[in-house]
Amino acid sequence: MQLTRYEGNPILEPRGYDWESVAVFNPAATHKNGQIHLLYRAIADYQGYVAQLGHAVFDEGLNLVERSDMPCFGPDMKLWENSIEDARLTEIDGELYMTYVVTPTPTPPGGVRIRLGIPNRQQAITRIALARVDKDFRNFTRLGIITPYVANERDTVLFPMRINGKYGALHRPATDWVDSDHSPKLPSIWFAYLDGLGEGMSGHKLVMESREEWESYKVGAGAPPVWTERGWLLIYHGVDKGRVYRAGAALLDLEEPWKVIARTTEPILEPEEEYERIGDMPNVVFPEGAVVIGEELLVFYGGADKVCCVASVPLNKLLDNLLAQRNRS
Q1: Cβ 51 vs Cβ 85: under 8 Å
Q2: Would you say residue 2 has pLDDT above 70?
Q3: For the chain, what is the radius of gyration of the CA atoms?
Q4: Predicted TM-score (pTM) of this structure
Q5: Which domains does the chain have, with CATH numbers?
Q6: How many alpha carbons fall within 13 Å on the CB side of residue 49?
Q7: Residue 256's CB: how many other CB atoms inside 10 A?
Q8: 97 near 89, Cβ under 8 Å?
């Protein structure tokens, strides 16, 4: 099963001459009061490759209503934030929260470095921070780092409901993070409880490792899990050994979300269009936001580390397809 691309893709492209002139991609999404809010990663120049977040608002027909003239959230050097990357949005108990990647050593993709003669630099580990987002998407309250201190982390998403009375998260540490029970050979998706919003993680459990050829290099969470009566729907990304990024779907148990009920054997979205195949990171579809409007699931994703896009599928059709694959296995 494949998602259907929106005919108006890309929905956001670089513009202007300053903070979002080079690239806008990897949008977080939330649906509130009949509008879809995106927080997207914006790049001003290749040399520093510092990312800030822009804010755009769409109506339910995917018509652009508003787009910020200035960044809505940027790095704080006092906190060793030199770049704000790959946000995800989750509403919990009526409050909106954002996870985001923090790095003190941002760098452009390898192909861009080679093309422009930018030397590679030694990379510090990336960590995941949490912030509370005000209703106007203008004010953010930083709540601190939530991933383990020694873990090189990306792709961390929160569950919109508590799991066994606690806050829950999915995270994707690199393989230099070792768990006492199991350490997979490739970057994989883990479940953890949060000791509190803005506090550390505990109770780590392995959820998903790479399994299929199209995800043979690594997997990571994409959009925050979507609650359904049949389980938590997770849209994730998989990367093959040729560094092609595709999207897949999995269904997790509602009470024990570290247990996988079903997952797609084939990608539900892969680079086919020019805006997905050609860009700063070629051959990339990278999902980061998912909203349900009526009976339709809308998945917001970055194309080739350059533009923002959206694709959709009837929610129940996707769930039926997932469960049918489980029953055939």
Answers
A1: yes
A2: yes
A3: 18
A4: 0.96
A5: 11-328 (2.115.10.20)
A6: 21
A7: 11
A8: yes
